[in-house]
Design a protein that fits this description.
- Two copies of one chain form a homodimer.
- Chain A is α/β, with parallel strands linked by helices.
- Chain A contains seven helices and 28 strands.
- The two termini of chain A are about 35 Å apart.
């Protein structure tokens, strides 16, 4: 059994990972109705003005602004109505001096008119329109191109497409856009005791938990999980599986087999094929976490224990995958809470203590790294420095998963 | 043109919507590999203990704890090694007094042994094992059922399935679960000037933006968007489309046609078929927003202007849809920032002023409700009370979309 070398401090480990992740360059075309949450892989230059024409911004009357000069409730200006325009209509009649056209929000401005008087500032009397408020040139008019001007770059490659950005694409009549592909992430649990769901458990065996927690994390962070089955504790099989993973995927995540047990062979195989950048981090849970580059592709060795594996997926895999997928960093959400009971961290490592938040209390739910409930009951974690502890009632910062 | 009646204050409008949304009751079965983000529709009772057996929590030696009594570096206790156990192995040999078995993390505990001494606290000398640390009964042993006990309800219906909860399902060997269906949301823009993407724009026409922003919002908040095409300004067509929408969907969202223009007929049709609960909210943008119940189903009338429509989708549709989908409320994310320039709100209504956050500055990006860039450039909004304003440099709270 070979012991770990020196453990890497957490922040350094995060930095090493970040420095070795390259954003994906492959692209694909998708409909804008399926593009929310994707990342644009082309610049979008406006082909047309938005709005494409001067239009009424209010319901009211299209007028020549100077005609309304000095108008007030007491001294209205009186105009002749010569037509009516709804949104979508093509204007025929022009507005001449002393005239106006009834106009609906969104309708194209008729020739001659340069302002809209809101309906609230008018009255219709004896077939003529009384205007109670002076209009300025272009008041209540949205000018052609005032939102988006034809020829301008409205969205740049690398833009994260949220609902608003999708709206910009639609405004230009764009149906399909080039986006970056989602990174393909190979997920491979290891361990002779791990059994696929659907099989009968024999003595000493456990169902495969890590595949399902990791694929959930991958799906929620812009990747495509690719399941390649359970790796057995056999060097040839390990090599074959890793080779297959590297051929098919952009990113490889293995769980288990990276501890110091005699039969933990994965690190040896990875080392033969590439460079291990760290193997062992000064955190609990997560001491055995490994990160390597093999044929230029990132390979994570996550701890085999379900809570360790998932906590480390949140800590390391999420930022790495999001960087590769060109997604914005996950916005870290924290809250202050009072710890529900006195809690000690690990003696020699920083502890990510999983907690559940109820009201203003943070309740530690960590029992042991091997327990899935240590994380399934948690809303997030608090950090406890090596050798530190928090006293019951002390205020702590909870970072939500 | 009929003017609005009294506008409803924002908070009251939010409350009215909330009170009239029923969580969905239809369920479906899905694989746990596709269940992240879904909501459980059944209680999950553990069929088996996790771990299913007493197992080693560390690499080391399985011992009888009392054998190690008083052991220390100076006075080691010396044991005979009678076997070796890896994870997944079925134990054969039992541990008798004075004996130990080399054991790997996760391996089933051999008969007779009740504790594991970590490898770091031992040495192998002349074929015998020196133990340097006294073990307590069950130290470094994960006991059968200590994580999950057979017969206990591990997850209840209504539980939001995040990665950790998916792990709990996997630990029980569960491959498929019953989840609530995603609500089907009919999306229908209205307006004679609105044209489907892919068609040529004629004079006075605009591309349909709202369908694409709203379907993005629906997809990101647990709904299935159902596109039913653009509604023309014709009462028969409006009635036919709404009827179709009510037949096919759980929720209906119409944009446009709910303002005070002469040809805004949607509210009339909705009123004939159901109850309008409000039409007009004291906010900017969003004055014309309508909410109704028709045949017991919620119907939103969103403003037609792209920024108004999307802001109101975030304010009203997101919480309503999440409640119907039984998703947890969206965690509101805020940040303090200094406003980049003096900014006034609306005189008579609360203003949701869209802003972009750069460093510690909040830059107002709202130009007008008709502009899509008023929201596509925004990260979130600040609230300005009716008649209020914020001075350049003042600290404001930005709520992120």
């Amino acid at each position: 059994m070979k012991p770990f070398g020196a453990l890497l401090p957490f922040k350094q480990a995060v930095k090493v990972v970040d420095e070795h992740i390259e954003p994906i360059t492959r692209t694909e075309v998708t409909g804008i109705d399926r593009a929310v949450g994707r990342v644009l892989a082309e610049d979008i230059v406006a082909s047309q003005n938005t709005p494409p024409f001067d239009r009424a911004a209010m319901d009211g009357y299209a007028v020549i602004a100077t005609d309304t000069s000095g108008a007030s409730k007491e001294t209205p200006c009186v105009l002749e109505m010569v037509g009516e325009l709804h949104a979508g209509d093509s204007p025929g009649t022009a507005v001449g001096p002393g005239q106006c056209i009834r106009i609906a929000t969104g309708a194209i401005m008729p020739e001659g008119a340069d302002a809209v008087v809101m309906v609230e500032d008018t009255a219709s009397r004896n077939g003529r329109i009384e205007i109670y408020k002076e209009a300025q040139s272009f008041s209540n008019v949205s000018k052609k191109g005032e939102d988006i001007r034809a020829g301008e770059t409205v969205l740049s490659y690398g833009t994260y497409l949220d609902a608003g950005k999708i709206g910009v694409l639609a405004s230009q009549g764009i149906q399909n856009v080039k986006v970056y592909e989602k990174p393909r992430v190979a997920i491979m649990p290891s361990g002779e005791e791990v059994v696929e769901l659907g099989k009968e458990l024999k003595q000493g065996q456990l169902y495969d938990i890590n595949t399902y927690t990791m694929l959930s994390v991958v799906e929620e962070n812009g990747g495509i999980p690719v399941r390649l089955g359970i790796i057995s504790d056999n060097p040839e099989d390990i090599l074959a599986k890793i080779t297959e993973a590297l051929n098919k995927c952009d990113f490889v995540v293995i769980s288990g087999g990276s501890s110091v047990g005699e039969k933990d062979l994965i690190a040896d195989v990875v080392e033969e094929r590439g460079d291990i950048l760290f193997h062992g981090v000064e955190i609990k849970p997560g001491k055995p976490t490994m990160f390597a580059l093999v044929e230029g592709k990132p390979v994570f060795g996550m701890p085999g224990y379900p809570t360790s594996c998932l906590v480390n997926s949140y800590l390391f895999l999420v930022p790495a995958l999001r960087k590769m997928a060109r997604l914005p960093r996950k916005r870290i959400q924290t809250a202050k809470a009072k710890i529900a009971r006195t809690t000690s961290g690990a003696k020699d490592r920083m502890q990510f203590m999983t907690v559940k938040v109820e009201g203003d209390e943070a309740i530690p739910v960590f029992t042991e790294s091997g327990a899935i409930t240590s994380i399934s009951r948690a809303d997030g974690y608090i950090e406890i420095e090596a050798g530190g502890s928090v006293e019951k009632g002390e205020t702590v910062t909870v970072t939500f998963f």
